[in-house]
Amino acid sequence: MSNRDHLIVGLDIGTTKICAVAAEPDSGDPLNIVGFGTATSEGIRKGVVVNIEKTVRSIQKAVRECELMSGSPIKSVLAGIAGHHIMGRNSHGMVTVHNNRTVTDDDVRRVIEAAQAVNIPSDREVLHILPQDFIVDDQDGVQNPLGMSGIRLEVNVHIVTCSATSAHNIVKCCNLANLDVTDIVLEPMASSQAVLSQDERELGVVLVDIGGGTTDMAIFSGGSIVHTSVLAVGGNHLTNDIAIGLSTPLAEAERLKHEHGVAMSKLVESEETIQVPSVGGRKSRTMDKLRLISDVIEPRFREIFEMVSREIDKSNFRHVIASGVVITGGSSLMPGADELAADILQFPVRVGFPENITGLNELIYTPMHATGVGLLRYGLTNGSSRYSPLFLGEHTIFNRISRKMRELVQDIF
Ligand SMILES: Nc1ncnc2c1ncn2[C@@H]1O[C@H](COP(=O)(O)OP(=O)(O)OP(=O)(O)O)[C@@H](O)[C@H]1O
Ligand SMILES: [Mg+2]
Question: For all residues of the chain together, what is the average pLDDT?
Fold first, then answer.
């Protein structure tokens, strides 16, 4: 059997586009992308499935394209999840080491379970339990405690939870498109795997993925995630503002944004003018480009970065961010977005592209595909990690939901 018969596939279910990205499972560094398919996303609002039928259709189109390009059937995917319902919190677990005072797999499993024993409402599911560091007796900062001697094992973890319904709907849409879901992955965590360097994660960095419907954040320190959140604003709000502010159809607003959009008015030559089509077949108008930027785009972009700044303050991790901020996602392509972000956040800012990939570079090498590529990286590294959902067995969302949804879909047909 060739590697092409069992590709690993990331399915980014975004607000504006759904895309499938495929790589060979033994693809190392650089990651060899062998398939890609994309479809306009119509059943998603602010990162959440609101129309099953339309979402299934978009998934089918993206996956079919990806199959054609890679020349191999796709049976399972790693699916991304985002939306304002995502919540992250830090927790702590402690257990007594069982056998011979030597830490075993079983002790690690038990301590992670103990850290998970926090009050989680019944309408929420645990998406990820991300160990930050272990403490063996009084020795803290331990990354891998296996085989160490000790009596007491503790762990600090970051727990990400999501709305059970939203996660169920993602699995349901994939199953209805004849796909198994091998894992559900928090989108900013996926994006971070594609665009951040290990040094940045160690030194402390904020990843900000500004998509169409949401702005996803993940803060890293000491190599681990310490804070996650999803803000319900994104590039679509900019497009809406332009449509309303300039009385122009949405499609024209999107075009104006792409052709003339700049995040800061100080970057615009003052005498430039643009043609603005009117709604209802009325005559188009000529207006100053500066007005589009200073009255509409810059205030909304400022608002997004001010929300990011408040979220950094709320996390209490501002002091750990030594390597600054990386912005990614489609809206990070707006010229001047990095400069405006640096101005407001008071950190050095760079735009993150999915680095270290070969194959289909011209299609994939854009911040818009940070999540798709990141899902592959997550699947390739975490599939074999001790703390992957596979290791944590029955306690994971994808095991519980996948089983339940498969039964449900079998019942429907
Ligand atoms: N060159 C550009 N300048 C400004 N905005 C851009 C540019 N290219 C794409 N965008 C915007 O990026 C957004 C889409 O980004 P992306 O593909 O990352 O979102 P998504 O993953 O579909 O949505 P989300 O992650 O919010 O669910 C759209 O709002 C689009 O207008
Ligand atoms: Mg996205």
Answer: 89
* CA 54 – CA 44 distance, rounded (Å): 9
What is the rounded distance in angstroms from the CA atom of residue 67 to the CA atom of residue 61? 10
Residues belonging to the chain: 413
Nearest CA-CA partner of 321 in 306, 308, 331: 308
Q: Is residue 232 part of a domain?
A: no
pTM: 0.91
Name the residue range of residue 134's domain: 87-165
CA dist., res. 368 & res. 165, Å (int): 26
pLDDT for 389 equals 40
Q: Are 291 and 273 in contact (CB under 8 A)?
A: no
Looking up residue 95, the CATH number of its domain turns out to be: 3.30.1490.110
CA distance 342 to 349: 5
Kindly state whether residue 146 falls inside one of the protein's structural domains: yes
How high is the pLDDT of residue 213?
94
The residues lining ligand 1, judged by C-beta closer than 6 Å to any ligand atom, are 14-17, 41, 47, 82, 211-214, 234-236, 239, 254, 257-258, 261, 329-331, 333-334, 368
**Residue 110, both tokens:** 């038990």
Query: 194 CA to middle of ligand 2, Å?
Result: 13
